[in-house]
Design a protein that fits this description.
Elements: E1 8-10, H1 18-33, E2 40-45, E3 48-54, H2 57-60, H3 67-79, E4 88-94, H4 98-106, E5 111-116, H5 125-133, E6 142-145, H6 149-172, H7 185-193, H8 199-205, H9 207-223, H10 227-240
Parallel strand pairs: 1-6, 4-5, 5-6
Antiparallel strand pairs: 2-3, 2-4
């Protein structure tokens, strides 16, 4: 059996990695202060931090402005080369998404050290890496998880807990479900079918469960070509998850 190009192992507790992950955590806290999901990244080459960045898709109106992507962009400009090489190590507080993994491999980074391996947005990292294993085009990269993992997970948990409390208060103050973002009269019928007739019904069920229910119903509506209501319910998923909400047309 051939060795994996992208081995995924627990972090070995290397002391030298701790200061860099602490710097990434500082970046994550800066993201939280700006209302962004708190993810930070630091790119180190030969013992020198070439880039330190944080998540900023909301403030930059850029879906690609993840911490990892920006760290790679800064580092490539710093060394005037789009290939960062085997001696480059990327430290990131949360496991990379599929987009960021592609950028990591394109930049030929040799090692990625991850804080929190769990993600509410991303799938299992080993499964995602298996997709890249099937191609012969990529250079090898080592992945290690759990460096200051508790601290990285804590900052994410605190952020979303605060977001949910703020959103719960907003829901409690609604005069009617018709005041929800993007909602119309047909949306009220969809919500009623799911058992949500008033703001208190939503609070009683819990925002996370409501978001799950709406996501399932949105997918069903999309399959049935009821695209407008599918998009509206998808936008409400963001709302109940504490995320910024866009016009329903952007969810089509």
């Amino acid at each position: 059996m051939q060795p994996k190009k992208f081995p995924l192992n627990p972090h070995g507790g290397q002391v030298a990695d701790v200061p860099w992950m602490q710097l990434a955590l500082e970046q994550a806290r800066a993201a939280a202060a700006e209302g962004e999901v708190p993810i930070g990244a630091v790119l180190v080459i030969n013992g020198e931090a070439i880039a330190a960045t944080h998540n900023s898709p909301i403030s930059k109106n850029d879906a690609c402005a993840h911490a990892e992507i920006q760290a790679i962009q800064q580092a490539c400009k710093s060394i005037s080369n789009y290939r960062l090489g085997v001696h480059a190590t990327l430290y990131v507080t949360l496991q990379p998404c599929l987009m960021c993994l592609g950028a990591i491999l394109h930049a030929r980074i040799g090692r990625v050290v991850i804080g929190c391996a769990q993600s509410r947005y991303n799938g299992n990292l080993s499964d995602t890496l298996a997709v890249f294993e099937k191609s012969e085009a990529w250079h090898p990269c080592q992945f290690e998880t759990g460096c200051l993992g508790d601290e990285c997970e804590s900052i994410l948990g605190s952020f979303f807990k605060t977001r949910r409390k703020q959103r719960e208060q907003a829901v409690a103050e609604l005069a009617s479900l018709l005041n929800l973002p993007n909602a119309n009269k047909e949306t009220l019928l969809e919500l009623a079918q799911l058992g949500y007739h008033c703001p208190q019904d939503i609070l009683n069920r819990g925002l996370e469960q409501v978001a799950t229910d709406l996501a399932q119903r949105s997918n069903a509506l999309k399959s049935g070509q009821a695209l407008q209501q599918a998009a509206i319910l998808a936008s409400l998923c963001d709302y109940f998850n504490g995320e910024p909400v866009r016009s329903w047309k952007q969810y089509l």
